[in-house]
Each structure stands twice: as C-alpha cells, then as structure tokens.
Amino acid sequence: MKKRECFIMSERIFISPAKYVQGKNAIQNIGEYVKDFGERTVVIADETVWEIAGNDVVDKLKQKNLEAEEIVFNGEASETEINRITDIVTKAGASVVIGVGGGKTLDTAKAVSDEVNGIAVIVPTTASTDAPTSALSVVYSDDGVFEGYRFYKKNPNLVVVDTKIVAGAPPRFLASGIADALATWVEARSVIQAGGDTMAGGTTTIAGQAIAEKCEETLFQYANLAYESVQAKSVTPALESVVEANTLLSGLGFESGGLGAAHAIHNGFTALKGDIHHMTHGEKVAFGTLVQLALEKHDMKEIERYIQLYTSLGLPVTLEDIHLKDASREDIMKVAKAATTEGETIHQAFDVTADDVADAIYAADQYAKAYKEKHAK
Ligand SMILES: NC(=O)c1ccc[n+]([C@@H]2O[C@H](COP(=O)([O-])OP(=O)(O)OC[C@H]3O[C@@H](n4cnc5c(N)ncnc54)[C@H](O)[C@@H]3O)[C@@H](O)[C@H]2O)c1
Ligand SMILES: [Zn+2]
Predict the structure, then answer these.
(1) In sequence order, what are the residues at sequence separation of 6 or more whose Cβ sits closer than 8 angstroms to the Cβ of residue 249?
(2) Mutational pocket test of ligand 1: of 105, 129, 256, 259, the residue with most ligand atoms within 8 Å of the beta carbon
(3) How many helices (H) and strands (E) would you count in the chain?
(4) DSSP string, 236-278
(5) What predicted TM-score, i.e. pTM, was given to this entire model?
(6) How far is ligand 1, taken at its centre, from the CA of residue 129, in Å?
(7) CA-110 nearest atom, ligand 1
(8) Over the stretch 142-168, which tens digit does the pLDDT of each residue have?
C-alpha cells in the first residue's frame, strides 16, 4: 500500500493536477471553473469550514445551476469515513466531488472521487499542507494512527485556493504549511542523490527537481513576511508567494521530487500516544526534517539556517516542543522502528537502521537545544 506500483523503475515521471487557480476571492469564480465538469456535485467540509467557505462554494455552484449536496466531514481521513462518504455520493449519483478545508478533508475527497471514478475539485482553506495537488491520500486509523498511502490514477482535476480565506486562517496553519514545504527540497535532493523512486512511481525529472528547489528558495525569501501578513489577515505578494510554495511547489515537488526521511519520521510519531497528537502535520514534519538533516552530513551553519527559520515561525524544534521531553528511549525506538518499516520512504534515500534514526532524533533535539541556549537573551 505504501508504494505506487511501477514496472520500469528507472523511468522519469512527473504528474500534476490539470488546473491550479490561486488568488484573492478565487472562490467567487468556482462555478465558472466547475460548470463543465458535470451537473451533480457534492461538497465536503467539516463543521468549521462550512461556515468559513463551504456555504459560499455551494452558493456559487447554485448560481451556475449546479446541484450541490452538502456533506459534513467527521474529521479523520480513515477508511471508515471514506466509505461512509462514498455511499452518500453514490446514492446522490454525483460525479463531481469537491473537498473544502484542511488536508484531511481534501485527502478524503480525493479518495471518494477515486472510488466513484469522478472529478476531484480541491479547495484548500488553509495553506497548512501540500495535500491539495497530489494523486494520493494519507490514510489513518479512526484514532489517528498512520496506516498508509492510497494512490490514484490521476491528480485532482482542479485546485482553487482563495488567498483571502487563507489569510484569515490562524497563523499557526500557515507556519505548518511552511514546515511541510521546507521538507520538500531536503527530501527530494536526498532521493535524487540516492537514485530512489518518488511518490509518482519513477525517478525525479529536472522539472520536479527545479520545482522543489524553487519551493525552498521562495520560503527562505518570503516565509516571515507571509507569516506577518496572516497575523494582519492581509493578502500580500509575500503571502501569495508562500501560499504557492506551500501548495503548488511543495505538492509537485514532494510527489514528483521524492519523499525521504522527514515524512517517514513524521509517520513514526503518529504511532505514539499523548500530546504529540495535538501537533499539526507540518509541526511534526518540521522536527522530522531536522532529524533528516542530522542523519546527513551538514555543517552547523546549514542546520542552524533551518532552526532559525522554524523558531522565527513558532515551529517546534526540540523533543520538548513536540511534547516528547519525557519520552523513554523505548518510545523513541518505537518511532524509529515505524519510520524504517519496509516500504517507508526513508529507504528511497537512506541506508539506515532504526537505531541510526533514534540517534538522529536525539542529535536533532540537542542541536536545537544548543541553538536556543546560544540565542537566549
Ligand atoms: N495527500 C497528501 O499528499 C498529503 C500531503 C501533506 C499532508 N497530508 C495530510 O494532511 C493532513 C493534515 O492536514 P491539516 O494540517 O490541514 O490538518 P487537518 O485537516 O487535520 O485540520 C485542519 C483544521 O483546520 C480547520 N480549518 C481549515 N481551514 C480553516 C480556516 N480557514 N480557518 C480556521 N480553521 C480552519 C479545520 O476545521 C480543521 O479543524 C494529515 O492527515 C496529513 O497526512 C496529505
Ligand atoms: Zn507533508
């Protein structure tokens, strides 16, 4: 389940959504983009997002004489939830599945669309992950433990990002998306170096590499200004750039560029119980990225460049920050073992054991603690 089936592993493969639209008030035009896909649509959003954007999306669809059945998402991208919503969509006879919200809603919408062989329309309401563009979903148990990836034969048909809505979301979400996107180049370059496979099922194209690299460049340039823009609930050129980096560049860059250790370590963290479950995907990925950097050979300046950006955005950099200060070596080994299970993406870039990963977790934690001490006023 974790790897896309592929016959000739050395082929370069690049995949992407058919259309990506981003801008202030972009949702106002959604009916125009969707109207040629089919008349029967379903709109999936959780309770919070119905108020923020779901109702607006439905209004715009109705203005174009499209039917729109409203579905409330339960909160977990699990097989149970995917099956429940697939039943509703099948009964409604709808062919256009529109997901509105955060990563879990979008992953569920993609899964449902695949089940009914439909058209997938993705409307992220935060720039918190790079889930919107990919042809895969991350599936969890009903209790939120990582179970695996589901792969689809196509990426979403349309992605519409309204930056006014993204600017109104909590700044923590944007920071999380920045962390998810900062992992992109770190992971892609490690897969490229090792000649590993990407989530698209082949090796990395020059396009995939260039996009992943540009993603990181954009973030180091504009992440802080974009974060301040969201504090002010304002759409600015810096925010537009970072939303594109978090969503489009990171999405294409991770899927066709390659995932390595950072995401495998994130997946490992979901195996633990406790307060770590309150951390966002991007926050766990931030720490996972530092662990990947600790597994690699970098000088202090390079590692501190990442720690500096993370801390300036309020992202976690130590075990204490992710509520694992008191975790036993046994717990850390549990994470490391889950991160190195067969089929995990870490093996596309590294030849390491669970023990090596556990050492890197402690090293990353110590690097960040030393950085904090050095910079404490
Ligand atoms: N499929 C992929 O390629 C891919 C890539 C990255 C991450 N993911 C997955 O994405 C998930 C994480 O997504 P997430 O971090 O967005 O969290 P999430 O989907 O769990 O939660 C998002 C939360 O934000 C709220 N929200 C959404 N928009 C809002 C707004 N504008 N204002 C206020 N609140 C708003 C929602 O109500 C929800 O409670 C994980 O399951 C992860 O594995 C998938
Ligand atoms: Zn991610």
Answers:
(1) 181, 184, 211, 212, 214, 215, 218
(2) 129
(3) 15, 8
(4) -HHHHHHHHIIIIIHHHHHHHH---HHHHHHHHHTTS-SGGGG
(5) 0.96
(6) 7
(7) 1
(8) 998 989 999 999 999 999 999 999 999
All structural domains of the chain, each given as residue ranges with its CATH number in brackets, are 19-168 (3.40.50.1970), 171-375 (1.20.1090.10)
Nearest C-alpha neighbor of 313 from the set 178, 167, 170, 131: 178
Tokens of 198: 């990407």
Q: How far apart are CA 284 and CA 263, in angstroms?
A: 9
Task: Please tell me whether 180 is known to bind a ligand.
Answer: yes
CA distance 307 to 299: 13
Catalytic-residue membership of 278: no
Do the beta carbons of residue 152 and residue 16 sit within 8 Å?
Answer: no
H-run or E-run covering 353? none
Whether 180 is catalytic is yes
- The ipTM of this complex is 0.99
Q: Which amino acid is at 51?
A: E
Contact in structure between 1 and 148 (CB atoms under 8 Å): yes
Question: Of residues 56, 114, 162, 281, which has the active-site annotation?
Answer: 281
Residue 10 labelled as part of a binding site = no
Each residue's pLDDT tens digit, 254-294: 999 999 999 999 999 999 988 999 999 999 999 999 999 99
Residue 43 exposure: Cα atoms within 13 Å on the Cβ side: 28
Q: Answer yes or no: 375 catalytic.
A: no
Q: Which one-letter amino acid corresponds to residue 287? A: F
Residues lying with their CB under 5 A of ligand 2, a single-atom ion: 180
Specify the residue with its C-alpha closest to ligand 1, atom 14: 103
